[in-house]
Amino acid sequence: MMVLAWVGVTACLPPVAAEPSGPRIALLYSDHGDFRHRDDYDGRLADLGWPLTKFENKDFGELAARLRAFDLLLGSALFNYSNVQDFAVGKDPLLTFVREGGAVVLTDCNYPSMVGWLGALGDGWEVSVANTKAAVSPPGWLEAEHPLFTTPNRIASLGGSWAHMQVGPAWAVLARSEEGGATAVFRREGRGFLYLTSRWPLDGPLLQNLWTCLQLSRAGLEASLPDLSALHLGDSAFTARVRNLTEGPLPIAFEVLDRLEPPDRAASATAEAALPPGADGSLTAVVGDVPRGRHQLSATLSVAGTRVLGASPVEVTIPPLLQVSVVRPAYRGAIYAACPPREIELQALVTPDPGESLADLTVSARLASGRPVSVTLDGPRVNLVLPLGVPPRRAVRATVTLQRGGGVLAREEVTLPRLPARPHQVLIDESGATRLEGAPFFPIGIYHVPVEDFDRLPALGFNSVVAWGTSLDSAQRGLDAAQAAGLKVVLELSAFLRGEYSPTGLAELIDGAKGHPALLAWYTVDEPAGKQLDWCRDALRLIQERDPDHPVYLVSCNPAEFAQYAPTTEVLAIDPYPIPQASVSAVADWMKIARQAVAGRKPVWLIPQCHNQIAYSNPQAGRGPTPAEERCMVYQGLIYGAKGIIYYPWDDGPCGLIHDPALVEAVGRLNSELARLGPELLASRHELLAEGADPPGLQAARFIGEQRTYRLTANTQTLESSTIIER
Hints:
With about 725 residues, this protein is of the alpha/beta class. Helix content is about 20%, strand content about 35%.
């Protein structure tokens, strides 16, 4: 690769025309599932301010004739699943559209009808699909420095997939599943490109990257920006990779701007060079003498004096020499008198100046009334465990000191608040178990129950229910009805985090309902995506500040996003609904990913499927789970450490638990088992014994308690599930 230095170059080149602020989108969809995915992008594109025109797949001829009126052709999920069309009949206008600077982006490429027609576009263009061996194959590899995943937003993962693509030599593979199949492929053609992915829908950052990539392509340039979050103390070098797609030289400038707050300080670095025709190169800008503190970085790329790219701002905090955080207690870093820990664990992070060695450094920690604990560093992080002894009667203060020899280099104090036991208080203990007034509580709940049916739930073994908190009045009705029925409530607040975020309304509801004796947890939002990530973070902060007595619960339906959303909640709930499209083993697959996402610091609750998903579009088609499948799904959740079971749903109109009398009876029996077994599992040490490989389909775990040891098994092939008392 050619390295381009800090030189200013001029060239006789016409100025690059400024692009419009957003692309014109043509959305392709099918009528499958009563047009299930026709409107998937309405909100996302409205947020971006991008104009959208929709075409049903059977009207592709009309779209082909109008392609020059658009910048990007976007295939929604299942865009060619029903009324299957041969889009190859539009080969000429389609290829002309791409070569003249358009982009074709096809999602949900998991079915032959979505991609089978591509082979007719030319030699090596063929694409076929096959299902993965596992119900969901986790992400395996990503071409992390490809422009689509770096510019202007860094895309860390596309997530897992249940199908993958096999492609001809015309395609570049950009991502693969853990099993090795392609989940994203790319082909440049003229001034435009085609991008195919098994994922859907595309989120805002990736949509922005696609448009940026197309703008650069039209300007004759391919560019990949560096990861600005790699800023560090001292001199930080940032390198942009570029490729000239034209037949003439391109004068290119790359600039990085660094703002430090506070104080208000700005520094910039620029690299300029001329890139020969067809050449690859790199431009390196060095931001010098970077100090500790909070930085905001941005980067721009210009061609012939015209800015063609601005990277999304990135915030980076370079920590002080010594930074201390609380590892345990994991729940809010607080000491609850209702369930006091026996010890606390602190983590010290040491960030030395450039060139400074960690050798001979010692970190010590002590409580006001205890002996110090000292550790010699063998890396930048060290954990220190301090026994508490007698449960404290006030806040606990710990002092952590960094020393070399006898000299103190840095000292930090940490305060862990002590919260008194209160009536109806709910907390999460160190094992991830829910504690209600200090006692273990295993939630057994269900969604979408009319308040007039709440009194039917206890007879079926439910102790909890999900209720709506769209307003303080609706929350009060649900909480009061649950209290009368002897139930606890997971109160859903999605209305405050859908479409737009309403922190004021959310705060008012929290303040008004937090003292209700039926409240179990705050349910910030169901299945968030996109910009809701920031809202979830803020909602967690808001609730923690206003209510110390109830945890925050959130549901994610995308295994690729479990790790992303785990920091925004105190209980991560997941809702795999495999029936009838996939194997019940999807529950184990999702639970494994969720366990990795929370890293043992937060509980995972399972939402088992009780409905016929296809009934929403066709009440006469599809089916819900059988009693054996239901039991197998619940047992898989327990085997992988689920700390609560919240079924979905009681009644969803055309489907739900009450629509299947046999399933109602089976769930009642299963809940009776959970009521007996759940609290004991919460108090036991957990170890996995089998994970589906030997023999095939077998999942098993042992729960070792003070009085009894249980072995739980579930076979996803035979659907046999059992509990064995070993002692």
